[in-house]
Design a protein that fits this description.
The chain is α/β, with parallel strands linked by helices. It is about 40% helix and about 15% strand. Helix 6 (about 140-150) packs across helix 7 and helix 6 packs across helix 10. It binds guanine (GUN).
Length: about 290
């Protein structure tokens, strides 16, 4: 069994990006600038956004963190988005999800200028992705594709089971893996909360992408020998033995599944760090397309 080391791979990608930034500085070019909007003070969201800002600093990007209170109105958020859309100093930006309930998420995502949409969530960019056109790929699926590619895992003609149909992970993952591309060309099955005979389906899988948001849902008896496991889940599970009162668990029961797997991502240190690295990559791409 080989661990798919997302931390190590993401560090390699960040180093590549940092080298690119160094050469931009030598040429007197403006360095990429990422902005992030965080509404409210959800603990996990704050952790993710802070990690994204820290990663920007590490590779030499400029970053701006905009923190808005939980009670922010939809109108005020849309106004802030418009400011970033028209600010020539910002190459790309993200609005951290989830948003408070008074704000319509879809309206917000549609307000982002698709050319600055480094999360790849705007319908124009989702459409471009589905049609095999160049675009910003959503960072988590992009990170998974990159991990499969860098570990040279064969996907062509393989049975891939994507567990979950979220707009951020499951849906784009199912599209990307079925496309004619590196780490694609697979036969894809999507399962979700209404699927029947789940373990019959997962047992046929050569590769499983678990993104259902239920901790340790996929167990060893549900998979075949030599399966490749990508665990996207990250849930805080109460644990009295930990100083902060919780531990992080994936959607995969690591102990039983890793005994059968040929490759497996750990949680933490698997998909999570790859997501951040690919957000940086998208920001670099946005900078290169942004001529001002
Ligand atoms: N919330 C969970 N994942 C993501 C992500 O990739 N981007 C944003 N903006 N919010 C998220």
């Amino acid at each position: 069994m080989t661990i798919l080391d997302g931390k190590k791979t993401s560090n390699e990608i960040k180093e590549e990006i940092a080298n690119h930034v160094s050469s931009m500085i030598l040429k007197g070019e403006r360095v990429p600038h990422l902005a992030a909007i965080l509404v409210g003070s959800d603990g996990a969201s704050m952790t993710y956004v802070n990690a994204k800002v820290k990663a920007c600093k590490l590779v030499g990007f400029n970053s701006t963190l905009i923190e808005l209170p939980e009670y922010t109105s939809e109108e005020d958020l849309l106004e802030k988005i418009n400011e970033l859309n028209t600010n020539d100093d910002i190459d790309g930006f993200i609005v951290q999800l989830p948003l408070p309930e008074q704000i319509d998420e879809q309206k917000v995502l549609m307000a982002v200028n698709p050319e600055k949409d480094v999360d790849g969530f705007h319908p124009v960019n989702v459409g471009r992705m589905a049609l095999d056109l160049p675009t910003f790929l959503p960072a988590t699926p992009y990170g998974i594709m990159e991990l499969l590619e860098r570990y040279q895992i064969e996907t062509s003609g393989k049975n891939v089971v994507v567990m979950g149909r979220s707009h951020i992970v499951g849906r784009p993952m199912s599209i990307l893996m079925s496309q004619k591309r590196k780490a694609g060309d697979a036969t894809v099955t999507v399962v979700h909360s209404r699927s029947k005979n789940l373990s019959q389906i997962t047992k046929e899988a050569d590769i499983i992408v678990a993104a259902i948001g239920i901790s340790e849902f996929l167990t060893g008896d549900m998979v075949k020998e030599d399966v490749v496991i990508i665990d996207v889940g990250i849930t805080r599970v109460p644990d009295a033995t930990k100083k902060n009162g919780y531990r992080l668990a994936g959607d995969v029961h690591f102990e039983s599944v890793s005994k059968k797997a040929s490759y497996i991502t750990p949680v933490p240190g698997g998909v999570g760090p790859m997501t951040i690295a690919m957000l940086l990559k998208n920001t670099l791409l946005a900078r290169e397309k942004h001529v001002i």
